[in-house]
Design a protein that fits this description.
- By secondary structure, the protein is of the alpha/beta class.
- The protein has helices at about 15-30, 45-55, 70-80, 110-130, 165-185, 220-235, and strands spanning about 5-10, 35-40, 60, 85-90, 140-145, 190-195, 200, 215-220, 240-245.
- The protein contains 6 helices and 9 strands.
- The chain has a 7-stranded parallel beta sheet, sandwiched between helices. A two-stranded parallel sheet has the order 7-8.
- α2 links the parallel β2 and β3.
- It starts with 6 loop residues before the first strand and ends in an 8-residue tail after the last strand.
Length: about 250
Amino acid sequence: MMQLDGTSFVQGASRGIGLEVVRQLLGMQPEGRVIATCRRPADATELKALTAQYPKRLRVIALEVREEKTIAAAAKAVALETKELQLILNVAGILHGPDFGPEKKLAQIQPEPLRHAFEVNAFGPLLVAKHFHDFLRHGRRSVFASLSARVGSISDNRLGGWYAYRGSKAAQNMFTKNISIELARVAPHAIVVGLHPGTVDTDLSRPFQRNVPAKQLFPASKSVAALLQVIDSLDREDSGKIFDFRGNEIKP
């Protein structure tokens, strides 16, 4: 069991995997605290219910990952709560929206969906690192993790397509490596990784589940439990790498 007796920060926690991460973290240790973010806390019904259940251990604050000023404001709000974080987990990600989906060919590429994907999937975790890395500069083991995807691996790409999603996740993986190198100098106890959660039954994957074998489609609860076990098993030599939910390294 993870010894999360400190404070964890979960970015993108209003639903799906993020919400389940918050739920499981709160259930794992009676002393651990969680600070969760979402775009509109007033509308996050399930997070509000968890806050009512754990009023002293869960704090919800606003953060829009595409707007750096909200990330900076969230960091200031967290600083009022604690000076140290044991876990920072970036969960927010985007594959499709009301007006766009994964591209199957070059003719379908549009600038705005590309920009949107990179802002959420790549720039978001990087900007969180910019404003939150000081919380990891303490003497205890800590983890900075971002949900990545196997399709962000260049060496594993055999099908093509999905330009915005693949490209933004590959960029995120490079940023993960960069962050790990810098934090090794200033926060030597911090471990920086990307995590592939598998194909999870969430809004992100739902339009594309038709051809996924039932045994390869996971409920959020199973995926999150596996990811938290992977986080628990990490050591300093793992920093800068990408792992799947089984703990297997995904090559760049």
